[in-house]
Each structure stands twice: as C-alpha cells, then as structure tokens.
Amino acid sequence: MTAPEVEKDPTTEQATEPETEPATELAREPETAPVTEPETEPAAETEPAAETEPAAETEPAAASAPPPAAEAAAEEAPGEAPSDEEPSEGAGSSGGASRSAQATGGKAPPRRRWRRFATGMAVAVPVLGVGMWVAVHRIPWMGPLVANSLRAVVGKENVTRLEDFVYDVEDRVNRLWRKDEAPKAYWDVPAEEPATAPTIAPAEVADAPAEEAPAEEAPAAPQLPPFAPPAPGPMHENLAAKGDGQWVPMRDPRRPDDPPRMFKTLLHADKSRSWSEVFIVALDLRQVEIHPVAGYQEPASATPEAEQYERFAKIPEKHHDILLAAFNGGFMAEHGQYGMKLDGVTLLPANDRGCTLVQYDDGSLRVASWPTLAPDEPRLAWYRQAPPCMYEDGKINPQLAGNFKGRWGATLDGNTVIRRSAVGLNESRDILYVAITNHTTARVLADAMRHAGATTVAQMDVNWSYPKFVTYEPVDGQLKPIALAKGFEFEDDLYLRKRSMRDFFYVTRKDVTVAAAAP
Fold it and tell me: Which has the higher per-residue pLDDT, 125 or 337?
C-alpha cells in the first residue's frame, strides 16, 4: 500500500546536486520495512545525495532523507513507536537518531539540547564573571551595588565566603603572573625641598617708610615650626621603588606658596608580593582640622535621637574654600556594630571591641580602645569606631602577631589580600596618618603604618570600592577630587555635590602661621 501523494515541503527539502530530480518528486511509503530496521538519517544530519534514488528506498542511506509523507505514515502506523534504546554503532545509530528526531517532531533530541545548553553555559559563565570583575574594578558604584544586592539575597556570611574565595583566586593568579614584577613608583621624589615662603631682605626693611612700621605695632603672631615628619625609609631595601619611605609635600593648589600641611609616601611592605602597596599621608594637626560626616544610610541609626538627626551626607559649601582633602569612614553597621557620634548625637553606640578615633572638645585627636576612652565620653566632640586596634601605644595586637587568623571586621578575614584603609596617630598625637592600600593583609597594613610613625593604628574599611583618599583642586572653575594614586576609582562629585551613602571624613586648613622650612 502506498502513501497518498503529497508535495514535498520546501522548508525541509535539502539542497541537491544539479543532476537530482526536481523538488516535486513523489515519495512512497516503505511497505516492508519493519520499525527495527535502520532508517535514513534526518535531513539535518546528512550530506545531500548525489544520486536520485527514490526516497522510499529501504536500504540504510546516508544520502537521502525520508520525505514528510513517509514520516507521517510511520508515526501513524500502530505498534511502530520509536525505541528508547541507545543507538548502536554504524547503521543502528543512524536509525536511532532518526527515530529520536521523529519522536520530537523533527527537533533535536533532549539529550542533545542539554549538551548544547551545558556548552553554552560553560562559555557564558566565565565570560560574565570576567565582565563583572572588570565592571566592579572600573565603575565606582558597581562594587557596592553587587555586594549589597547579594547580601540581601544570600546573606552576608555567604557573601563573605564568596569574597574570600574570589580574592584568594585573584591572589593566586597574581602570585603566578606577577612574581617577577618590580615594585612600582607613583610619583617623583624631589631631591631637595625648596624654600616654602618668600623672605624680605634686610635692605628692603631698612628702606620701608616709617609710617608702615609704627613703634607700637602689635607683635606678630608666633610662628609654628615647619612641618617635617621624619622620613621612615623603605621597609625592605631589596624590595623598594624609588622614593619608598620618603615624604613628598602635598601643596594646596589654591595657596601653593603656603608651607605644606600634608606629606605622602609609598611603602612596599609585603616581602612576598612586590605589587602590594601602602600609600600613606601624614597630616599636620596643627594646621588642619578633621571633620566627620555621616552617610545618608551608614552607619545605620540605632537610637531614637539618631532617627531625628538630619544627614547632609556631603561637605558643607561653607567649607569649600578651605577644603584640602577627604578620606573614607568605617564599616557598615551590620559589620561589627562599630559606633559613631557627631554633632552631639549618638548614631550608633560605641562597643568595647572598637578601636576608636575621637576628637575632644579642645580639638585634640586620639586613637585608642573604647574601654580606655569611655570615661572621657562627656568630653568627646565626636567619635568613629573601627575593628580592634592593630597597634596600640606601640604594641601590636596579639591576633596580628600570632599565626592564627584574626577578623578585622565582620566581612573579611585578616589574612585576605585585599584593598584596605587605616588611620593612626604618632606618640605626641600631632600627626594623623591615613593609609589606603593595594593587595595587603591586615598585618602588612599595620606594620607599614607603624613603620611610617604611627603608634596606634585602626583599620577603617576594606574592599575594592571603599578605601579612598582624595585632594581637591579647582578645575574649570569647579572643585574636583584628585586621587592620591592611580587606580582608585571614584565619581567626579565625590563628597561634594552628591550625598554619600557611607560616612567619611574631610580635611580643612586652619588659619595659623607656620615658619618657612630651611632652604
């Protein structure tokens, strides 16, 4: 019995050689071929036939495809359901593939579709991962967005484990590919510091009119000695870039003739990683003032008075004219519950674990563990807490000195190689040190700060996006932040015209007179 004659569907017709029959050739239904006999390969898996044998040929053929009529007849024939067995080698595998194609209406078998899906995912996931990594390291807001979104979905502990894993992989890659890399310098170190203020020659004083120098003129304000922090030198002589451990002046671009109020230096503190870098700024507390600012979201409010506190979350315009610099604050509230107080309002109460940067009512600063400072709380103008002190009064924290892991904040292990930030004070508490780093452990950061001159050190924040130190200078008539070192990404209106989600500090100059440094 033959199948009804039908016209072949052009969409399933395979292209043939010029000598084949026209596309309107009619097909017959194979009458004697049992279902267990090998059938022809589906059209999508065979080469076009160079011969013109009828489509109903029952011999196993790799050159011709079964016409739609034959497929329909085979599907309708009772007792001829396709087998679920794996196709055998040779002709048997050809028949199994044809039956699978028939069972799925001419589509690829489920197993083949899963293989394609798995292959696609194997390619897409690494590409997406690399793309996300690049975005986090190039777009300032991308890192916080990704981390906070993941914490909301999978929880902060799982995000912590993921961060540790990712940074461990990055460190392993760096140790393989950057093992022969030389330490890098980021700025020129002047051989000799020129005079910082103009002087008046004796002859000019003698020729001055008498009325310009009245006998009863009020005595000049006493001059402070010039700011000259001791140069620490490199930490490791055989692992140092040019200028390591030498202080470089950071002049106010709007008052370039003023004596320097800040100096910067770079240290390569990790003997096993030449690409590990600690950038440190020394600020003269006689000439500058430090101001804390709460972010519009962090640290989260934990007291009734905090709920009523208005968070401006940016640098007040009244201080733009005397603005020098700004740097990041501390951890989010959920990562340790480290306290903050300012403007007479306690946003988050202090806890005994916290290493605390405070300012007294007289303007002096101190860094110490909270149990030491708690009796002075009524005299504190503001405070911001951090994880336990790394160094305190010149003594290292036992958790850093030992070989066991200590956690500096609830987010990352102290042994994680990551970007970090810290503050510290010298013994006389007249120099504030601020550090930001690349690829450092907690111990490396602490030792570098101690080497630079800090006797008490508090780590402030970690992760790629948060540590930052910027200076400000006018560009096209508008203040713009300038990075301390290349590679620290931020937005052009950082802390100025856009409210910050996280807390931070900014630095202004005081109206004091400082003697010129000796030429």
Answer: 337
